[in-house]
Each structure stands twice: as structure tokens, then as C-alpha cells.
Design brief:
The chain is α/β, with parallel strands linked by helices. The chain contains eleven helices and 15 strands. α5 links the parallel β4 and β5. The longest helix is centred in the C-terminal third of the chain and has 20 residues. The chain is globular, with a radius of gyration of 20 Å.
């Protein structure tokens, strides 16, 4: 097919943010069929130079408002520190652009709800970056649940063991005013998985959480964190994480009225294309190792996420994690932080 014709059909992306993870987003757009990166906005001159070198055909801006004024841009991918999500996402939607917004969606429920409403009013796609829903591993576990392999799901455990977070540009991840709280950083993915796996049970009703820090001068930076979420039918989930470990190891275990699922992923670091992983399932009679169609890991899932948004825009396909689900994920994390701070179970009705 003629390249010009292909470009006419491609969804033209603007990327706001070109740091370590933003550059991964740029590559995902660049390698995805039907997607084309035409504009990048990044504040620092050093990052602007890197963006121009890596993507010479894209227009590079120092101000994201200039990118949003570019009529060629159809969809915007926002990869910024958490405290900037609401401001930039709102401007993006008001500019009439479809949106892929990194997690956490925003730092407050009111801001999440506003973005959902603006997207709906303007008939725009709003996707939140919970890429585990697209994983060959974690999503396959969900499909096994939906296929009835384990009966009715009753219990979910999602566990992460890893080394501390990257500081982020200008150390934003270690500043509560900019990060919100550390539960919004990575455990938010696991709250999303747990709620997704137990979707047949309805919505979680309460969250009780505990946390501590190995840094005596910064107790707010919670290196060890665990939460239990409860559903009205007796179903429950445990989300637990330590940043006082090494490498990157994640596990999910789901049990039901008939069987069980065990999924595991390990890598020397999270952003690796060479992880080890497995998925095992027990249907009540036999334990089977489930073959996966492709490798698992956030770099692969990021590419799937871009492809998902392209399909949603061009063909009306489904959004893996729409704004409403992104808001629930933020809500569960805010409930967990409130529980840690007040040492009590928190009802989700207090948050949402």
C-alpha cells in the first residue's frame, strides 16, 4: 500500500512528556501499525533535543499548549508527573483530542469525574494507562476466570517485590505534593487487577490497609504496604507490595469455588524485554500450564495499549480501562491511604 495512503489512515499522536517512560511511549507509538507520532511536547531543552534526534519528522514543542493547537494531532498521550495529569488532560479534552492518560488518572476523585464528563460531552475516547489489562499474562488470567475455569472467584492476591522507585524528574516521586501518595504509584495497578478479577462480585465495599517505611525521616514514603479489600458476598482481595527488596517480581493468585490460578512474572528490572513468567491453572481436577501467545511485560503491554486506542478511534473498539475504571482505581488507593492514616477500615462510599 502507498505510504501516503497509510499515513492518511494512521491515528496521528501527540506525546506530552519525554522522560524515561515517555520515551518508551514514543517508541510504542512509533512501532504500532496505524499510529504515527507527529508532535512531542517536553519542557527541558535537553529532552527537546533528544526528541528531535529520535523523531526528526515530529514537531517538538516546549509548551504543551502549542501541541494541543496543532490541528494534525488527533490523540494525545500524556506521560507526566501525577500532579500535572488533571491540568493537562483537561486541556487536551477541551481541545477535542482523544486521550491516553498515564496512571494515576488524577490525584482526586473530583478531578477524575470532571475528565470523564468532559470526554463524554465531547464524544472523545479517554483511556487510562492500566496496561496490565492488556497483558498476555495478567489478561489471560482474567479470561480463564471469565471462562469459568475456577468457578466463582472468591479470593485474589496480588503481590509485588521490587527495589525502590526511580526518583523521577526533579525528584517528583519523592514529593507528596506532586506524587499524591505512593499507593497511587504502583499498587494502583494491583488494586485495578483485583477489582477486575472480582468483577462478577460487584464493587468492593471496604478497604483496610497498613504501611511502614524504612526511612525514619520520611514515614510518608511507604516502602512496605498491604491492603485487604472486602466485597458484600464475602469475596476479598489482598494487595501487597514491598520496595525494600530487589529486582522486580509480581505474583497473582486467584481462587474460586472450583479451582485456582497462579500467575508470576520476574525480571531484573520492570522495563525488560527478557522476563521469566508462567501461568498455571487448576480446574478442580488437573493443574495445567497455560501457554501464552506472546511475551509479557509493560513494554509489550504499552504497545498493545497504543494499538487498542488506535482501534477504538478508527473502528469504535473497546477501551481496556476507560475513565470510570481509572477513577475507581484512584478511589481505592485514596481509601487505602486514609485507612493507613486513620488505622481503620474505610468504606468506599466515603471516597466515591
Amino acid at each position: 500500500m502507498n505510504e501516503d495512503i497509510m499515513n492518511e489512515k494512521s491515528v496521528k499522536f501527540g506525546l506530552i512528556g519525554f522522560g524515561a517512560w515517555g520515551s518508551c511511549h514514543a517508541n510504542a507509538i512509533n512501532v504500532t501499525d496505524g499510529a504515527e507520532i507527529v508532535a512531542i511536547a517536553v519542557r527541558s531543552e535537553e529532552s527537546q533535543a533528544k526528541a528531535r534526534e529520535a523523531y526528526p519528522e515530529a514537531t517538538v514543542y516546549g509548551d504543551y499548549h502549542e501541541l494541543l493547537a496543532n490541528e494534525e494531532v488527533e490523540a494525545v498521550d500524556i506521560v507526566l508527573p501525577s500532579y500535572l495529569h488533571h491540568e493537562v488532560a483537561k486541556a487536551t479534552l477541551e481541545a477535542g483530542k482523544h486521550l491516553l492518560l498515564e496512571k494515576p488518572m488524577t490525584l482526586s476523585i473530583a478531578d477524575c469525574r470532571e475528565l470523564v464528563e468532559i470526554a463524554q460531552q465531547n464524544n472523545l475516547k479517554l483511556a487510562v494507562g492500566h496496561e496490565l489489562r492488556l497483558s498476555s499474562l495478567w489478561a489471560r488470567a482474567k479470561s480463564l476466570i471469565d471462562e469459568g475455569m475456577i468457578g466463582d472467584p472468591q479470593y485474589v492476591l496480588v503481590e509485588l517485590s521490587r527495589r525502590p522507585y526511580r526518583h523521577g524528574a526533579e525528584g517528583w516521586r519523592f514529593d507528596l505534593d506532586r506524587v499524591g501518595n505512593w499507593i497511587l504509584e504502583e499498587p494502583i495497578h494491583f488494586f485495578d487487577l483485583a477489582r477486575w478479577y472480582l468483577a462478577s462480585a460487584g464493587e468492593p465495599e471496604t478497604v483496610y490497609a497498613k504501611a511502614n517505611s524504612r526511612q525514619p525521616d520520611h514515614p510518608e514514603l511507604q516502602d512496605n504496604f498491604s491492603a485487604i479489600m472486602n466485597w458484600s458476598g464475602g469475596e476479598y482481595a489482598v494487595v501487597t507490595q514491598t520496595l525494600s527488596a530487589f529486582e522486580h517480581h509480581q505474583t497473582a493468585k486467584i481462587t474460586g469455588t472450583k479451582g485456582a490460578i497462579w500467575a508470576s512474572w520476574s525480571g531484573a528490572m520492570d522495563r525488560t524485554r527478557h522476563p521469566t513468567f508462567f501461568l498455571k491453572a487448576f480446574d478442580g481436577e488437573e493443574v495445567r500450564e497455560i501457554e501464552l501467545e506472546r511475551s509479557a511485560g509493560e513494554l509489550f503491554e504499552l504497545e498493545d495499549q497504543i494499538a487498542m486506542l488506535v482501534k477504538a478511534i478508527r473502528e469504535g473498539g473497546a477501551i481496556a480501562c476507560p475513565g470510570e475504571d481509572g477513577m475507581w482505581s484512584v478511589g481505592m488507593c485514596l481509601a487505602a491511604q486514609k485507612s493507613v492514616d486513620e488505622n481503620r477500615p474505610v468504606n468506599m462510599g466515603e471516597i466515591l
